[in-house]
Amino acid sequence: MRTAETTTTEPQFSVPGMLIGGEWTPTGENGLREVRAPYDGRLVARVPAGGPADVARAVESAVNALNRDDFARVDRIRVLEQTSAALNDRRDHFARAIAMESAKPLKTAKVEAARAVDTFAFAAAEARRLAGEMVPMDASASGAGKTAFTLRVPVGVVAAISPFNFPLNLVAHKIAPALAAGCPVVLKPASQTPVSALLLAELLNGLGVPAGWLNVVTGGGSTVGDALVTHDDVAYVTFTGSSEVGWAIAGKAPRKKVRLELGSNSPLIVDDPADWSRAAAKAVNAGFAHAGQSCISTQRIYVHADVAEDFIEALVRRVENLVTGDPLAGDTDVSSLISAEDTERVKEWIDEAVAAGGKMLAGGDVIDGVLRPTVIEGAPPTTRLQREEVFGPVVTVTRYESFDEALALANDTRYGLQAGVYTSDVGKALRAAKVLRFGGVLINDVPTTRADQQPYGGVKDSGNTREGPAYAIEEMTERRLVSLQP
């Protein structure tokens, strides 16, 4: 990390505090804490350091909101639509906040802000369509003379825990569906990147969300997070983050609906005679956007031996042209990782892979606190770069001879979020869709692609849910049967 700005005393953003019961709380149970930019240490904001008592008040306000039932569907739709429009008007403001608190390059942060606009718009559209169904009771003798239908009712209070890497859009993916479904929310944003979430809450609160329907408590996972997921009045937990933390949360709340969107080490298969040049071009952004800090960042690339030389040459050339540095600079492609500790960890994994026989083709060193985009060929399958989620600007390249070998290599992981396959053979494409054990298989695309309306989620250690407003809303509601007999 650069340190030239660490003595800055004036924060770049002013946030009103935590939102509890419709009121802004300027300080938390544990006072205030500083949010500093990962790139240069400048002060981004001062935010409340919440604790269990703050969580208790927030959950109580959410329960009261649910019982009041004073946020009609038509009003929820209005707020969601107005939020989408307001975000669109303020995209540059939100993008700057994202860039500063997470070190996401500004041009990438602008894409995230635009996606959040869509996420709220999709949630509003789904809120209009949310409905039950008729049940043909008279199809059996026991149902003769009865008329029945189902209602979609809110599951209850939603606890939402969001990660640092998409501090606006992944918050939107939790708040917007919950409000659309009629569920009050208590949000705990990532402690490293709470600013975007607080600015969004300020926007929503100003658009007329009734007291208690949206609450935001900032603080750490062991204080705020644990108190939230174990609270008896929380019915539903939505968490995005690491596999280890996610499954631990599920273990702490065995009687709740716990929905997890977790990590991965996403594979990309480039098959002969696939369009390897197009694959190489897309793999650069897929592997190094936001310094690889995405659950679906392309990490493991398997390329057919017949096109490997050309593919690797094109990939390395493009990677070496990536611009590193200040996330606020308009031409920066890759900036700092979220912390110096993470930079050290990823560098250690790189060194381990090279010592085990991997060949460094690009990057591998740290300049001005930024780990340069790294490409390693032939890292052994036992190394952490191949087995675990690196969450850093690193891709591995492995050559293969047969398509079945590539499928087996891609499947050799405890994760299963998304996989990408480049092939011009329809039969191979269909085989990949059937054989690859992932929540999504993207043909002639990188695994890092996500449309905000798609059913997004994984299997195995990558989670147990499908996000996207339509699918999240379905999970945040329950079917209630209503049967009428004259």
Automatic annotation (TrEMBL):
Domain of life: Bacteria
Family named by the database record: Belongs to the aldehyde dehydrogenase family.
Keyword Oxidoreductase: yes
Positions of the Aldehyde dehydrogenase domain: 32-481
Name the record gives this protein: Aldehyde dehydrogenase family protein
Pfam families, per database record: Aldedh
Cytoplasm listed as a keyword: no
Keywords from the named record: Oxidoreductase
Organism the protein comes from: Actinomadura alba
